[in-house]
Design brief:
Length: 132
């Protein structure tokens, strides 16, 4: 599994990386612009990310905009919902509007509230077919 961890908070990136590194090749981006660039390059290289863990509140470009742009890139390549990356929105913000936008406008697959519990993360990975 290939995973892209996107968060502007150093500690949050490290925690997610520590949880995922045993089951995934992890790449890291510190804002939405970096994330979209890495996501696009992975698609162009034929090595798309299986999982994107995406914070919502970030400088440069927030998670909502990054997610919309990632889904457009997938659409442009003709990827259907079965072929596209699984996106877990990770945020300290437990805001219904933000959550609804991530799911209904952005196409997120799951929403995890920080601090993330490893057992919950692994359960979500299994539920989305990313872990056996």
């Amino acid at each position: 599994m290939r995973a892209l961890i996107v968060d502007d908070d150093f500690y949050s990136r490290i925690v997610l990386h520590d949880m995922l590194r045993a089951v995934a090749e992890c790449h890291i981006a510190v804002n939405g612009e970096e994330a979209v660039g890495a996501f696009k390059k992975a698609l162009e290289d034929g090595r798309a990310y299986d999982l994107v863990c995406l914070d919502l509140v970030m400088p440069e470009m927030d998670g909502q905009q990054a997610l919309r742009e990632m889904r457009v890139l997938e659409e442009e390549r003709g990827l259907d919902s079965e072929s596209r990356s699984v996106v877990f929105v990770v945020s300290m913000v437990e805001d219904n509007r933000e959550t609804n936008e991530a799911f209904f406008l952005g196409g997120a697959d799951s929403f995890l509230v920080k601090p993330i519990e490893e057992a919950r993360l692994m359960a979500e990975l299994r539920e989305h077919g990313l872990l056996g």
